[in-house]
Amino acid sequence: MCVESLKNEQKSPLYISEFEQPFEDCKSGANYEIYRSYHKSKEIGEDLIDFNELIWPNEIKAIVNTLKANDIKNFTISCRSTNLIDCLAVFEKFNCKMNGITAVKTGWKRIDGSVETIPALKMRIG
């Protein structure tokens, strides 16, 4: 059972200068999903952007282009949606391939103080 957020407990090396401003001021054409995922990953101390919510196949081109524009080659997907296989097929069209499995923080601590983690797909562009 989760009882406490990890927000602001750890610092992340993630940095995309454009995303340090409100989303409405972003000019790169990034979609909100990558903006939200960036901020969530950063605030819980992840080293990579983790997509933990539903990704729509029509969002993937913008996601990949934004990652490439910011020289980000690795990211994770911990979303457990039913369309994940479809999304992986679209990611592959943009030269993104699954590169193993890892664990990512959820942003919560368990009652015993341990950090809750879940499995995630490691993805690599290029």
Task: List descriptors.
single chain, 126 residues, alpha+beta, Translation Initiation Factor IF3, 3 helices, 25% helix, globular, disordered N terminus
Write the topology of this structure.
Layout: E1 2-5, H1 32-43, E2 50-51, H2 60-69, E3 74-77, H3 84-93, E4 96-110, E5 115-125
Parallel strand pairs: 2-3
Antiparallel strand pairs: 1-4, 3-5, 4-5
Describe the overall structure.
With 126 residues, the protein is an alpha+beta fold. The protein has one domain (2-125): 2-Layer Sandwich (Translation Initiation Factor IF3), CATH 3.30.110. The chain is 25% helix and 29% strand. The protein has helices at residues 32-43, 60-69, 84-93, and strands spanning 2-5, 50-51, 74-77, 96-110, 115-125.
> In which range does the helix fraction lie?
25-40%
Please tell me what the overall shape is. Answer: globular
What structural class do helix, strand and pairing data support? alpha+beta
The profile of the biggest β sheet is:
5 strands, mixed
The name of the CATH topology is Translation Initiation Factor IF3
Q: How many separate domains make up the residues? A: 1
Order of strands, main sheet, comes to 1-4-5-3-2
How many helices does DSSP assign?
3
Q: What's the quick description here?
A:
Helix content is 25%, strand content 29%. It is of the alpha+beta class.
